[in-house]
Specification:
The structure is a single chain. With about 290 residues, the protein is α/β, with parallel strands linked by helices. It folds into two domains: about 140 residues, Oxidized Rhodanese, domain 1, CATH 3.40.250; about 120 residues, Oxidized Rhodanese, domain 1 (3-Layer(aba) Sandwich), CATH 3.40.250. The chain is built from ten helices and nine strands. A five-stranded parallel sheet has the order 5-9-8-6-7. Strands 1-4-3-2 form a four-stranded parallel sheet. Strand 6, helix 7 and strand 7 form a beta-alpha-beta unit. Helix 1 packs across helix 5 and helix 4 packs across helix 9. It is globular and about 50 Å long. The N and C termini lie far apart (about 60 Å).
């Protein structure tokens, strides 16, 4: 049997998926997630999804012992969860979403954290699939369970201690994917009880700038312009942060598209940092002397 095309890039097109769908080693997952109050991702999946794609619950498949939202589960918990969704260790995985916060990037990052590189994001998500005439269906999606063995790449995950140490390390860039108003402390955080502002020495690159109007990731030249405008070298060591670790993964996805697959994500992000009065905070635009 000839080898199937590998997933050598972090993105696949809807046209690519139309050619490959149904391949015995290809698995699809709907990773749609909404901000609190923004919608019901599970209900949307039940109404319409790409055939063969079960739903991955980002809030549910998480560290349930943490009081922070959707923190990474332990490797064995992730392995059990994606195994039940039909993913085996040797499978190619394509994850997609319905736009908005582009949450498929989060699941793409999670697979890579747990040492699975055969994963890509469907560029443009469900809308792109429909745009090439791709079929959708509703109702539950039943898949056969497979065995998935998870490793762990600690270099792709930043915790509070690592970020705190990085503030004094100018060889590593901290990139905040929140809106400019939230970064500067001019707008309140959507989660109650969080302070305003940003991590000192971090740079602001709002994640929505990384995407085209049709929901696809911007072309490399445009991505490079946005990184440059934010004062960030995408080829440098990076730690991405945001409100709760979802949109930061779009920074990691964009960096991977530009040839840097090793961007770490601060999993707790501002949900953790902004809740701790002992941690340093900055207000206003980025300052090199903070």
């Amino acid at each position: 049997m000839p080898m199937r095309p590998d997933l050598s890039t972090p993105l696949v097109s809807a046209a690519w998926l139309a050619r490959e769908i149904g391949a015995p080693d290809l698995r699809l997952i709907d990773a749609t997630w909404y901000l609190p109050g923004g919608g019901d991702a599970a209900a949307d999946h039940a109404a319409a999804h790409i055939p063969g794609a079960p739903f991955f619950d980002i809030d549910g498949i998480a560290d349930r012992a943490s009081d922070l939202p959707h923190m990474l589960p332990r490797p064995q918990e992730f392995a059990r969860a994606v195994g039940r969704l039909g993913v085996g260790s040797g499978d190619r995985v394509v994850v997609y979403d319905r736009g908005g916060v582009h949450s498929a990037a989060r699941l793409w990052w999670m697979f890579r954290v747990f040492d699975h590189d055969r994963v890509a994001v469907l560029d443009g998500g469900l809308d792109a699939w429909r745009g090439v005439g791709g079929a959708v269906r509703g109702g539950p999606e039943t898949v056969a369970a497979r065995t998935f063995e998870a490793g762990f790449r600690p270099q792709l995950v930043a915790d509070r201690a690592r970020v705190l140490a990085t503030i004094a390390d100018d060889t590593v860039e901290i990139v905040d994917a929140r809106s400019a108003a939230r970064f500067r402390g001019e707008a309140p955080e959507p989660r109650p009880g969080l302070a305003r502002g940003h991590i000192p020495r971090s740079r602001n690159l709002p994640f929505d700038l990384l995407y085209r109007d049709d929901g696809r990731l911007a072309e490399p030249e445009r991505l490079r312009r946005h990184f440059a405008a934010a004062g960030v070298n995408p080829e440098a060591p990076l730690i991405a942060t945001c409100g709760s670790g979802i949109s930061a993964c779009s920074i990691a996805l964009a960096a991977a598209r530009l040839g840097n697959p090793d961007c770490a994500v601060y999993d707790g992000s501002w949900a953790e940092w902004g809740a701790d009065p002992a941690l340093p905070r900055a207000m206003g635009p980025h300052r090199d002397d903070t």
